[in-house]
Protein 1
Amino acid sequence: MKRFGWKQWVVMAALALVVLGTGVFAVRTVRRAMYWRAHRDEAIRPWMSVPYVAHSYRVPPHVLYQALGIPPQPHDRRPLKQIAREQNRSVDDLSAVLRDAIARERVTPPTTAQPPAPARSP
């Protein structure tokens, strides 16, 4: 049996790093999927951001921003308690507004839905 040379060891180390990196990203993906599966329709708390609430309740973030009277902002991570402070409102008031907006959005059909296909004639 022949011993590995330095080139083979470099290739083996590179392969090990690739397998390790793939494993890390696979574990992260599975953990995130499990987290969001367990955190659907979670009670609205002061530490949550508007995008977090939108993701948890499966509504578009712009709907919640519109309900709060705030222009949608990309990567907005402000907690609801900070938004309430900025608007001189209570967190409970913001939560009620968000719950109403979520209920309205879930009742109305999505605007991006495909129209029904026309019936075929025989």
Protein 2
Amino acid sequence: MIWTRAEGCRVWDEDGREYLDLSGGFGVAALGHRNPVISAAWAAQPVVHALGDLADAAVTAALRERLGPSKLGVTGEDAVEIGLRTALLATGKPGIAAFDGAYHGTGLLALAATSLEAFREPFAAWLPGPVHRFAYGEDPGPLPGDAGCVIVEPVQGRGGARVPPDGFLETLRQRCDAAGALLVCDEIYCGLGRTGVIWCSDGLADVILTGKALGGGLPISAALFVRPELEAVWDLGPEDVLTHTHVGNPLACAAALIVLDAVPKLLDGVLVAGERFEEAGWHGAGLLRAKAGDWQEAWRRRVIVVPAGPGVRSSPPRRR
């Protein structure tokens, strides 16, 4: 299918057929497709491309200040790479503790932490490690001696909107403290208000990873250093050793500032809408939901959902 127009929670294909988009573009269009405030912010930018880590546009500098200690990326996978590499730089330990059902991206380091074997198997010979895999939602016990971090989704996205038991993140915090490891919380899908709170791991994580919704439709991500001193581990010389051509893209940064202003005002609406999904048989939290179903059949009925294991997943735009 080819989309030719999108607005709010609706999209249209090349034949003019209208669809209800319950995917929100894989959770990216948090404020709806073609949001007019974001579009105006894009149009107002006097610079549409700066020089990444060498020279920021003014709007990029404003976003960096707004986020606080952090490192910008372009994709969600970039944020995962930054989080995992921060742990290695900070602790000197290469081991990664991760969980079944996890999805962290398809680059080799992120894929090593990811649990989906269909994605991993073709590249197994190249995957870095060591990675120690544990059952999601359960106490992993004392961490292996080489573990520099635990990476976890506070609510799993691609794994099927899985919500862990109460106390799971607190237990991971304790295990990390005992082992001298970082707790890296991948909130690329579940964060920025998707589940009804800004950050599911607030007050527990050492590093919070964000992306998807942050750019309001354009690619941008970030690793937020909850422990501010972690930013300094990247001071490795005059050149940034992990950067991209489009890091800090001004259009994406302009959208991110709009998203950061808007999301806190939408949290109550996310919880109300989430209750309606719950009543209709969707499990999960807020507006990150999944249920048994056939995504292809839904598309035939002009409702866009995405596969989630044996079922379907929904992450629609948010509204008041």
Protein 3
Amino acid sequence: MFLAAGLAALTVCAWLATRPTAYRGMIPPLGVLGLVEIGIGATVRLRAPRQVEARRERDRMRRVIASFRIYKVVETVVLTAGLTLMMLFPRHTVLYASGLGCLLQASVLLVLDRVAERRAREYASGLKANQ
């Protein structure tokens, strides 16, 4: 899911780069957060088959689950910054568009992280049950 969301964000960036619109201000937040999504997705995808040692995996999952708190705070700050920019600047300006990009990407990341956190907790519970 993270890979798909990141690729979608980069596709929107490429499309916006070819258009003469004030919404080009969305390119930096969409691009940066899209690359973050791709990095997360690729890391999870590459790491999953190599995890064999149960104790190490349980420890890793504890750290992963704990990190979701930090992600939520950062994503909420980005979402709030986006809303603030959208309220402070008129439509069709670069800063309004940047705010819109932050709002969109932070919203997507919050939803994806909520799903990922739920799956991580289920996986960690399964690891604990197999002790």
